[in-house]
Amino acid sequence: MKYFLIAGEASGDLHAAHLMKALRRADDHAQFRYYGGDEMASQGGKLLCHYRNLAYMGFIPVMLHLPQILKGMARCKRHIREWKPDAVILVDYPGFNLDIAQYVKAQALCPVFYYISPKIWAWKEHRIHHIRANVDRLFSILPFEVDFFEKKHHYPISYVGNPTVDEVSLYLSRHDKPRAATPTIALLPGSRQQEIKDNLLRMLRAAAPYTDHYRLVIAAAPAIDLDVYHRLIARAHIDASRVDIVKGQTYHILHSATAALVTSGTATLETALFRVPQVVCYYIACGKLVAWLRRHLLKVPYISLVNLVLGREAVRELVANDMTPVKVEAALRRILPGGEDRQRQLADYEEMARRLGTPGAPERAAREMVDILRRPHS
Question: Is the predicted pLDDT of residue 73 greater than 90, yes or no?
Fold first, then answer.
């Protein structure tokens, strides 16, 4: 069967690649075309558009690139219409993917599966109406989403486990813990250029007091030019010899890290599964306004997946105007060896891992997708 997949950022690219691998095991005749990235390209098929050409975040960047985004959306619809896939599989990225779902359903082209739900439990809850109307099956990777969709909105979904558990477990099974001459603090400032510009400078300044005893290792996003990182290091007035920039090797960085400063998103979950104590920090311009909007519009009390899974603040979150170098440095000090929060956070990670469940999410999702497509009149 033919599968058309759409992922709009680095984490979605990785999850989609593992799903493609599982689909090939479940369907000997699987063919793929996709909007995605390098991880998906490693699984074969045809990459039609790299996510770096469409991944814009925030009102102003989206408006500035709106013609490019709209052209990309029109091309995507044309690709689907002309190739006639047996299924379209959407991976997160709701602003783009929900429009595609509506088009596919309106044209009655094929079933639509959503792997990794849009986070409508956090905001834009009204999108449940689009999902209900245009998505044939939603595959959830977060345990608390079951109650949200099924109990609150009476929309049945499939919880398949979390693919990050698979990805981290596989990595750990293949790699011994590195032996570093100097302990490291990992900095994970995000995968989009605007996120990096907003967060990394503050992270560097917060970690600067520890460069006598730790190396700072920046997890560089594959699609971002290294000059972006070098300029921010220079602006932070840190000795560049104490900072490493490592591209496309986040797991390697986390495997050897003593602690981490992390933006929200999948990276918070990955950091926890590597058992690295972390501070979640996410700067946004107009911080006071954003903080007010967060209190009044955001439907959940936390932004990190670790805290959302546990239902409490296991890791410190510093968001909007709270993300200052002074506050981040103080929170970092508490999770370094000897810090008062380190052991408690590590214990909380064990509980989080139990709630997420066992590996096997891509296989469970792939088997159910193939079973649905093979049913008569599906």
Answer: no
